[in-house]
Design goal:
Radius of gyration: 21 Å
Number of helices: 15
Order of helices and strands: EHHHHHEEHEEEEHHEEEEHHHHHEEEHH
CATH superfamily: Penicillin V Acylase, Chain A
Strand content: 15-25%
CATH architecture: 4-Layer Sandwich
Shape: globular
Helix content: 25-40%
Length: about 475
Amino acid sequence: MLWTIEAKDEYGYGYTAGRCQERLFRVVLNRAASSLNKAGADPALTHAKAKRHLVMLEDRYPAQLERIGGLASALGVEPHEVVSGGMALASLSGTACTNFTAVPPATSDAGIYVSWNLDLSPFFRLLIGRMPLYIRDVAGSKPYVCMGLPVLFGVGVMNGDGLSACVNSVGAMDSGEGLTFFELNNLAMETQATVDGAVEVWRDNPREVVPGLAIAIIMNSNSIFADLGGDAAVIEHSHNHMAVEKAAGHDGVLASANHHQFLDRSLSGGADPVIEPQIAGSYARLARMWELLDDFRGNIDPLTARMIARDHGLNYSTLAEFGIERSYYEERIDDATICCHPWNLLRHLRRLEFEDALVELNVAYTLNHILMDPKRCTIYITLGKPCRKQYIPIWLGDALRMEWADEARGEIDYAPDLLPRAHAARKDIFRRPDPTQASESIRSVGLRLFAALDRMMASRIVKQ
């Protein structure tokens, strides 16, 4: 069973999450504080920004303010410390994802599918574990499944009304303070059942964007939403600008990668391969995704969606306008395949291109593939790269109290009570059930190495 956090109110949710994973939260917040200090952040400015964000939450999203208070109480810290830590973590660089949605008439079975190739540095397993999903069930709001870590950066992927979502990070320079995309996503999942409702959450609230041109900044994100009615949309935003593209205008399919394709980049300050060569892989992945969706439009089902997610093909067609041309038999552009691998890592090392090797290792790595199938009350997930790992089906009809769960039971091809062994418990991933001094030392070294690599990578690819 997935880790389920049940609470009577939002404060209780934050408190329960903090007490269940106290060691994990303490390590994460300590690392975030250390990262801010080493980056030279002014403590007074950081404190002031966190205080402003708390005031904004009181007005715009009081439920988040309550859960931050619960987590702070569980950890014995001040709420502004939790906010500062969450923002520091969300501002890490170097993530990438290639996502799509398919709705009728693009699907062969009238299904609704949202696909998320979760591309993160392998070191992020220290934070989110092999199974990155958990269930949030708080009285007074819709229950939903999240990816990530509660309160700090949990992204909702499917709620009890079948609204499904995925995200991918993107760089932008049109920055400003507001609700983070984690908070916007959670607010939509807790209150909305339709794509139009989710879009209004983005339109009606100020949007936090951290300035940076890189392969991606976690805080800035494109989002895909799909609902049971067959509506789907991509939301691209900066602080002052926003674009929404519906699947209805593309015969039922949409794709998204780590740059703005619908929002004018001259407005958002988004990167292109001329400004930031490291973003070239995103353009290649997106072109390949559209190519596959065009090929399979009208015939997309769960099997086809999985095949698309594990694709290693290349498509450089969208890079020609930027003067970047490469044949399929030449060395691949870094981070250029939907199922990401550090294909050129050894080549970079042989050429003593250590910084390029480090960047590729951190961004060209698919940790999981998550496929949302809300009509069947199911999420399929691989505990590793989709080209290598078997899919695990997770039945959510009962946990999310989906009204159509009884009907969906007749459509699924697995036992709904199948419980993957990996879900038995969400243990503290920083120690084993019987920790030893050696195992604790190894994990400590791993976290220090992760922090050092992230700082090196940020200095290599982030332009402020």
